[in-house]
Amino acid sequence: MPGTAETAGSRGKDHNLIHVADQTLSFRDVKVEDPTPTGAQLARSAGFKPGDGAIVLQVLPDGALESIRPEEVIDLTKCDGRFVIVASDRIYLLTVDGQRFEWPCRIVSGGVLRKLAKVPEGSVVYLQRRDEPDLMIGDHDLVDLDMEGIEAFVTGKASWKLNVHGVVIDVSTPTVAVSAAMEQAGFDVSKDWHVFLKVRDQPKHEVDLDYIVDLKTPGIEKLRLMPKNVDNGEAPQAPRRDFALLDGDTEYLDRLKLRWETIIDGKRRWLVIYRFPLPPGYTARETTLALEIPDMYPGAALYGFYAYPELALASGRAIPRTQLRGTILGNEFHGWSRHRGQLAPWDPETDNVVTHLGLVDAALTKEVGE
């Protein structure tokens, strides 16, 4: 739909020129005889005869549509001159993100909804449904507005879900490469895998890492993985995801290329990162690192960290303030009592797992004098 500035500019001072759209919201220029026409005159100028039952809707500056009665007079010197004129016998009502719109056709497409509500790129339109999940409406999908009640639509960030061997990932595009999906789920794509795509009511079929999965395909269930060097056909256990982290935390952890899990053991919530690298000066090169995640995180601060097994310095010097203990799935982790201090307190608006891992790195390197 043309913007207000664009339309006003194209009209200039010619108040006898209007812009008329059909049900596709494709606009064309139309001349009118009078700068103060009635609704009936606007319809006639657009090519409709009196018996056609034309409905005239004025496009307001905010994009909303307002019906114009046949006898109602419009002053074209005081508006942008944009109208939707369609032959119809009634007006249909709909809402997009709570904003009400009038529409002259029983059927509306997803593309028209995008134009009507000025939905930005990167967002999608969903039809709200009462007893089942909301339905994503593509640009070419059609919605029948002649249902009971007012059809309500909402917009949101595009997101598709895919089960990668037990790990459900969110994808921002409707297609994703198998390799990208595996990496996002925490699997090492440098190893040899058999990858099977499972679609409901279809036999599973093997795909390679470059295969593009179209998540719009009805019935897609999962990607199942099987290492090529495992004789019994069973893949390693998928990482546990007992609770969700912040999106930024998840993205950062995935970029580390380390296996990680979220685990609830008893009443304590843990983020566990395996094979976390240690700086030179320790008796080990890597450790299993754990952060306890409070229920109110990020409103509640993270404190210290835990390692398994107990860390030791190559110099033999004892490490102070490591008296904390935490048991995770039967393994006793040794906790380091470390905090930020008064000069840099925890800020729930900016601090998270990512910033806390910076504190972890600083504490580990400080003990070896780096």
Notable traits:
five-stranded mixed β-sheet, disordered N terminus, 370 residues, 25 strands, six-stranded antiparallel β-sheet, alpha+beta
Structural class: alpha+beta
Averaged pLDDT: 86
Q: How far do the termini sit from each other?
A: 60 Å
Please report the number of helical segments.
Answer: 6
Report the major sheet.
6 strands, antiparallel
How does this model look, in words?
With 370 residues, this protein is α+β, with helices and mostly antiparallel strands. It has 6 helices and 25 strands. The protein has helices spanning 4-11, 39-45, 110-117, 178-184, 247-255, 353-367, and strands at residues 17-21, 27-31, 54-59, 65-68, 82-87, 92-96, 99-103, 107-109, 123-127, 135-137, 142-144, 151-157, 160-164, 167-171, 175-177, 193-199, 205-207, 212-214, 220-227, 260-265, 268-277, 286-292, 305-308, 324-328, 331-336. Strands 20-21-22-23-25-24 form a 6-stranded antiparallel beta sheet, with no helix packed on it. Strand 3 (54-59) and strand 4 (65-68) form a beta hairpin. The longest helix has 15 residues, at 353-367.
Give the SSE layout:
Elements: H1 4-11, E1 17-21, E2 27-31, H2 39-45, E3 54-59, E4 65-68, E5 82-87, E6 92-96, E7 99-103, E8 107-109, H3 110-117, E9 123-127, E10 135-137, E11 142-144, E12 151-157, E13 160-164, E14 167-171, E15 175-177, H4 178-184, E16 193-199, E17 205-207, E18 212-214, E19 220-227, H5 247-255, E20 260-265, E21 268-277, E22 286-292, E23 305-308, E24 324-328, E25 331-336, H6 353-367
Parallel strand pairs: 1-5, 6-12, 13-19
Antiparallel strand pairs: 1-2, 3-4, 3-5, 6-7, 8-11, 9-10, 9-12, 13-14, 15-18, 16-17, 16-19, 20-21, 21-22, 22-23, 23-25, 24-25
